[in-house]
Amino acid sequence: xxxxPRYWREIxxxxxxxxxxxxxxxxIYFPPRSICPVCRRKSVGxxxxxxxxxxxxxxxYTVIHVPPPHFEGEEPYIMAxxxxxxxxxxxxxxxxxxxxxxxxxxxxxxxxxxxxxxGEKGAIYYGYKFVKEE
Amino acid sequence: MREVAVIGIGMTKFGELWDxxxxxxxxxxxxxxxxxxxxxxxxxDAMYIGGMSSGGFVEQEHVAPLAIEVAGLEDFHIPAxxxxxxxxxxxxxxxxxxxxxxxxxxxxxLVGGAEKMTDVVGTEAxxxxxxxxxxxxxxxxxxxxxxxxxxxxxYHMHKYGTTQEQLASxxxxxxxxxxxxxxxxxxxxxxxxxxxxxxxxxxxxxLLDCSPITDGAAAAILAPLDIxxxxxxxxxxxxxxxxxxxxxSLHNRKRFDALPAAIHAARQAYKMxxxxxxxxxxxxxxxxxTIAEIMAIEDLGFFEKGEGGKATEDGLTAIDGELPVNxxxxxxxxxHPVGATGVAQVNEIVMQLRGEAGKRQVKDAEIGLTxxxxxxGGTAVVHILGVI
Lengths: 134, 388
Known about the structure:
The structure holds two protein chains of two kinds.
Chain A: H1 5-8, H2 11-16, E1 18-22, E2 28-29, E3 47-51, E4 55-64, E5 77-84, E6 89-94, E7 107-117, E8 124-132
Antiparallel strand pairs in A: 1-2, 1-3, 4-5, 4-7, 5-6, 7-8
Chain B: E1 4-11, H1 22-37, E2 46-50, H2 54-58, H3 63-70, E3 80-83, H4 89-102, E4 109-116, H5 124-130, H6 145-160, H7 164-178, H8 192-197, E5 200-203, E6 205-206, E7 215-224, H9 225-228, E8 236-245, H10 260-273, E9 282-284, H11 290-299, H12 308-313, H13 330-334, H14 341-354, E10 367-374, E11 379-387
Parallel strand pairs in B: 2-3, 2-4, 9-10
Antiparallel strand pairs in B: 1-7, 1-8, 4-7, 5-6, 8-11, 10-11
Helix pairs in contact in B: 1-3, 4-14, 7-11
C-alpha cells in the first residue's frame, strides 16, 4: 500500500488530462514533462499547463490475459498505445469495446473511470480510460 | 585506453532452483569464474554486480559487499558495487568492469549478475518486473511487461506483415538451441503449433513467446590484455563496450518498431570495434519476448528493418545458418534471471570463441556480439568480443 499523496499529486493529469505546453516551441506533452526535450534549458520555467482534448487514434493495442496484482479479475482487457490529436502518445485501457472490434486506426476519446483499489483498506484511484469515439 | 580481455567465465545452471538461495548462486558463479581464469581471490581489484531488484525478489539490498562476503574475500576489502539497469544490469556490470580496466584504475575485475526470482509467490514477480516500465504512466493503468512488447509486436506485424508463425519461429529455434545447453532452464524442443496453442499472455504474445521466471547467476573475470597471458591461454578480447539510453515509457519513444537505444549502442559498438554487422559470426541478443529478437536482429543491422521475422523463419539465424543467434537458447530457453542475463550472454560468446560450446558450437567463430536490453528499451548495452 502506498501513501495517498503519491496518487493525489497526479490528479490534475489523471482526472483532467492536464499536460504541458512548451512556450518556446509550442510542443505539447502528456504525460506532463517539466523540461522540453527540444528546447531543454530554454524551457525551464516556460512549461505551462495545457488541457488536452482527450481524443486520438489507436496506434497499437494488446489484450492483457495475465494482469498485474491490482487488476486481477478484470482480465481480459484491452490496453492501447494512443496518439492523441495534439501529437503526443499515451498508454491507456480501452473499455466498452469488444476485443474483436478494436483495431489500429480506431478513433477513441478519454473518459473518467476507476483505475484500481489499493487493497481492501487502501484508497480507490481514478483516472482516464478510453472508449470508442462515436 | 588499455585493451581489455575476458580471462575467465562461470555461471550456475539456470532454472527454478528451489534449493539454492541468492547467496548460493552468487558464490557459485563467482568461484567458477575465478577458477576458470586461474586467478586467486586476492588478485581481484574490484567487483561489479548487476541485479535488477534483489530488494523486490529476496528483500535484500546492499548485495555487492554480500557477494564478496559469500566468496570469503572480505579481508581484502575489495571495492564492490552493485549496478542496476533493469534487465540490462548484467551488461552494465560488464561495461563498468571494462571501463575500470581500460581507464587504468584497476587490473583484475570480477563482473557478475544475479537474480533469485522464485522466492516470491503469485503475481509478485510480474509486479517487480513491471517496475522496469513507467510505474506512473504505464503500469498504474494496468499495463504489463509482456503487454508493452505485445504493443510493439502488433505494430511490427501491422507495418511489415510480420506473422505469428514468424514470432513463434524464434521460440522454436531458441528451444532447439537450449536443448543442447546443459545450463539452460528448458531442454525440450517445441513446435510452432506448441507456441500458437499455448495460453495467451498479452495478445499477440502467447506464453511460449515469453521468457520465463528464472533463478541464476553468471560471472566473468576481466584483465588488461597485456597481462592476461600471465594467468591463462584462453583469452578473448573485448573489441567494443557501449551503452545507450532512451525513455523508459514506450509511449514517449520516437518509434515503436525498433529500440532506438539498441540502434545507437550498436552503431557505436561497430565503430569502436572497427567491424561491420556482416563481420559478426555469432550473437546473443535480448529475446525477452520473441518480437524482441526480431527487432534486435534488425536494430543490430543483421537484417533490414521489417525482415527479421522472415529471416528467422527461413533459418538464417539457426546454428547452421548465415548468422547464428542465441546459440545458448537465449532468454527464452536458457532462462532470464534478469540481472544475470547480460553476463550470461558474455559467457556464451566466450565459450563460442574458445570453441568450447560443444554440440551448439558455431564453426570458426571469431567475432561475437552481445545485445542486452533493460525494460522495454530504456537501456541497451552492446559488447563485441573477438579471438586474439
